[in-house]
Design goal:
Keywords: Membrane, Transmembrane, Transmembrane helix. This protein is of the alpha/beta class. The chain is about 30% helix and about 15% strand.
Length: about 500
């Protein structure tokens, strides 16, 4: 399992931009004109006598015509107004739609790993398009947290916390106190801080199910990864089988259907790393993901619950192309300072260095930047070294001892390696600054609590936790998101 224009989120910048729910639905202006016009100009003709019976008949006829016209106009006005009102109600969604079969709200959270925003435009995606057309979409994509890596972002989505607070600060890292190593198969609770959604849901007496979501196999708090409701990761399980397993939950008695479900696909991240974001293999992978969404929709429709389920489809990050000509070598800095490989916890796209005791991180940062700015290090201008506490505040990447003291931010598409080699290859990567548009992914939501055909501004994925707890009407754990965001996105309840 494995990423925008520059973000301007700083300080309290995680507060969402208010989302207007007002939509203009104006009817064309029309002037009031007479339906019938009677001329009183008889030119120069002399007046003719009019009998009382003829005058009476004329008056009756005129009145009848005027009455008929008034009725017709009133009917047209009423139907037009009703139609306009219906259109406006359907487009903005005044209130959430009632459940037709399910007794309580259900949220299905789907992750398509590495689904870069824009992939949906590469080819026909009729099923994803259906969710977008009849649901709510982040118009310019979902913003991942930094670093834009799989495990930090998946766990931020389900905890509402930045990595510095939920503890999963990288896909691989070490505990500075014990020296213990974390990897993507580490299931000890000590690594996984915060309260993930499945634990929150169970705390409120509801059921939850997880299918391969990072962190879901960890026995933590009230969550013990129950049999048949929690799948241990096995990448060889066919995607179709994963979809069918989720669908089978809806065949259970109503009180046993999980209120919260997760579903995970490794694609198109798998292809993106091998060939980059622009290869035809990506298009093929997107087609397959769309077919899986179609399979899910059909299964829910067959069970009569498609319109009842709140589906939230996201990715964890985007993807950018990389090639060997965009390399920076730490050994090229030896004239200024030697950086032994034992100091380096990760090279790319996030350079993380933890020097041993006795070395000054501040001095190391100064010497590295001196070399990089000298013009004598190939591609040195594309790497900047920081003390973690001096990183841009919008990254929220300093408040944890697990984060090494020295962090290097690498320009989009570049990689850092220890020394030169003859290897020549191109592919794709993520993990870069989340301000890069290439790191954005998707947010598509469909269901009774989401307006149809609505576009919302981009937002960080830490907001999704409160979105889910609001739909389920349960109280969440403290997190870095805002409750106002959920209120702005969701339709008000009945």
């Amino acid at each position: 399992m494995g990423s925008d224009s520059v973000s301007i989120l700083t300080g309290n910048e995680n507060k969402p931009t208010p989302i207007s729910t007002k939509e203009e639905d104006e009817l064309p202006n029309s002037s009031s004109t007479a339906l019938l016009s009677f001329s009183t100009d008889f030119s120069n003709s002399p007046p003719k006598p009019v009998t009382s019976s003829v005058l009476f008949i004329s008056l009756v006829l005129s009145a009848s015509i005027a009455l008929a016209a008034a009725i017709a106009f009133g009917f047209l006005f009423f139907t037009s107004s009703s139609s306009a009102s219906s259109l406006k109600s359907d487009s903005t969604g005044v209130i959430s739609r009632s459940l037709s079969k399910l007794k309580t709200p259900v949220v299905l959270l789907i992750s398509s790993d590495g689904f870069r925003f824009g992939y949906q435009f590469k080819t026909d995606t009729p099923n994803i398009d259906r969710l977008i057309k009849n649901g709510t979409e982040a118009e310019l994509g979902l913003i991942p947290v930094f670093p834009t890596l799989t495990f930090p972002n998946h766990y931020s989505i389900v905890t509402g916390l930045y990595p510095a607070y939920h503890g999963i600060i990288n896909n691989y890292f070490s505990d500075p106190l014990t020296g213990d190593q974390f990897n993507m198969a580490s299931h000890e609770p000590k690594w996984w801080l915060g309260e993930p959604l499945w634990e929150t849901v169970v705390n409120h007496g509801l059921k939850a199910s997880t299918y391969f979501w990072p962190g879901s196999e960890v026995n933590k708090g009230t969550w013990n990864c129950p049999k048949d409701y929690c799948m241990f990761y096995n990448g060889s399980v066919p995607f179709e089988e994963r979809v069918d397993t989720v669908l089978n939950y809806f065949d259970l008695p109503s009180d046993e259907i999980p209120s919260f479900m997760t579903l995970y696909f490794e694609d198109p991240d798998h292809q993106g790393h091998k060939v980059g974001p622009d290869d035809p293999q990506i298009t093929e992978a997107v087609v397959e993901i769309d077919k899986l969404i179609g399979r899910l929709i059909r299964g829910l429709e067959e069970r009569g619950v498609f319109e009842d389920v709140n589906i939230i489809m996201v990715g964890d990050h985007g993807m950018v192309g990389t090639c060997d000509k965009k390399l920076i070598f730490l050994d090229d800095l030896v004239k200024w300072i030697e950086i032994p490989k034992e100091w380096v916890q990760s090279y790319s796209p996030l350079l993380a260095i933890r020097p041993p005791p006795g070395y000054s991180p501040k001095d190391i940062v100064a010497k590295m930047n001196e070399g990089l700015k000298s013009g004598n290090v190939k591609n040195g201008e594309y790497l900047r070294i920081y003390l973690k506490e001096e990183l841009p505040s919008r990254l929220h990447y300093s408040a944890s001892d697990r984060i090494p003291p020295i962090i290097g931010l690498i320009e989009e598409g570049f990689k850092v390696e220890q020394k030169r080699s003859k290897r020549q290859e191109c592919g794709g990567a993520h993990g870069y600054d989340n301000a890069f548009f290439s790191m954005r992914t998707i947010f598509i939501a469909h269901g009774p609590q989401f307006a149809r055909g609505r576009k919302v501004p981009s937002f960080e994925n830490i907001q999704i936790y409160n979105l889910v707890t609001s739909i389920l009407n349960i109280e969440g754990a403290p997190n870095n998101g805002t409750m106002s965001f959920a209120k702005n996105i969701l339709l008000p309840s009945h």
